[in-house]
Amino acid sequence: xxxxxxxLIELDREQSLVGHIEAVLGWDQxxxxxxxxxxxxxxxxxxxxxxxxxxxxxxxxxxxxxSLGSSAENPMGDSSLLPEExxxxxxxxxxxxxxxxxxxxxxxxxxxxxxLAQAAWAExxxxxxxxxxxxxxxxxxxxxxxxxACLGPGKPPYDVLLDLYEPGSTEASVGAVFASxxxxxxxxxxxxxxxxxxxxxxxxxPCDAARQAAISQWMMDVLSFDKGAGRLDTVEHPFTTTLGxxxxxxxxxxxxDAFASSLFSTIHESGHALYELGIEPPNxxxxxxxxxxxxxxxxESQSRLWENMIGRSASFWTPLxxxxxxxxxxxxxxxxxxxxxxxxxxxxxxxxxxxxxEVTYGLHIILRFELESDFMAGRLAVKDIPAAWNEKMSSFxxxxxxxDRRGCLQDIHWSQGYIGYFPSYALGNLYAAQFWDTxxxxxxxxxxxxxxxxxxxxxxxxxxxxxxxxxxxxxxxxVQRATGEALDARHYVKYLNAxxxxxxxx
Length: 506
Ligand code: ZN
Prior knowledge:
Bound molecules: zinc ion
CATH topology of the largest domain: Neurolysin, domain 3
Number of domains: 2
Shape: globular
Order of helices and strands: HHHHHHHHHEEEHHHHHHHHHHH
Strand order of the largest sheet: 1-3-2
Structural class: mainly alpha
Number of strands: 3
CATH class of the largest domain: Mainly Alpha
Strand content: under 5%
Helix content: 55-70%
């Protein structure tokens, strides 16, 4: 290995170490930290942030990248380098450019606007007063356009923002996938709404925290979560965080009258953890940026594949349901496995994305993508967002928000400057369905194996085709290599139709 490459790895590992130390503090803050510790904890974290930032923008990195032939036009560097070295340079070039291309005054302006906009959003939301938030959103859009111009001069701004969250994606690529998906979801939803609703009332029977904790621990074992390399704790909003190469923490919460919530959040977060723990780059690249996940949407594809495609299937519960009944006390007494599977797949249009089922979820995201695309291109004025939002809610989902609090003010993302972020939520589902479809055709008798309690073939397929190489490939390349074709929404549509025609009987 050339000495410049070795030095880059050394510098990158220092960033990774500090980043993981920061993650330990963040994890502790969310789980066990006593409330009065918050003041110094914030300072501790900010201090480490400062160190990480300095390390990320060090000019030595830029010099080393150039000396290895990596530039904006040729991020992978000299063609004489090994494939993993070239992949690594592409990852480093991307992060280095993102960290260094924004002028300091823009970074400060963005930070100030985010903090003002968040406060304004919280107040506007409480009063359901969109006009009070509108000036902040206008400013945020303007700054996002400036940011895009610095990161990708000459490129359409929305393309640059989308690529930030899902490397390699553009408005055209996402738009093409969503355009075919939208009509399919709307018509599937119409079919479902014409059928009698499934009964899921038993899912709100009481089940105490101790029982739910036992269910979660059991579920982690079922999914082959290595408890020597991670653990489960409780928080307000479940998440997964990586504290080290062999240390991935997951979290959940126990609601007495909604035990299925912790069950599925544990499966979801375990899916994230299995991905993190499955990354195995060549030895020389351990604990570098090559050993990180490929993108947020690829991450989400792993959590959702386990949660939905597997965890909400009849085959999965065939061998496991009796044990779940036992562990949940009286909650599932007298409920057949068939009724349980229907209940956990109930579809019901709602106003809020975070509560959406598998069918309506994508429609919430497509709505957001279309609005962002319109206001970024100047086709939609900020003042007209509430009306456009409500109109799309009614035409996609058949429900109209009674006020802006439950409409366009419902979540914090735009006030945080996360424009271009939403599509990755839906792309995760689409990647998952395409992996799932391919896996089923490559592994014969997979369903029978799952129904006999054997999940090993699923995990080894994912390890080989998705986890192992970490960030070496762009998301689009992972999909192409694993499934032999580009991302196509028809796999998701096929999966949904097969599942919901059974659940709702059409
Ligand atoms: Zn997730």
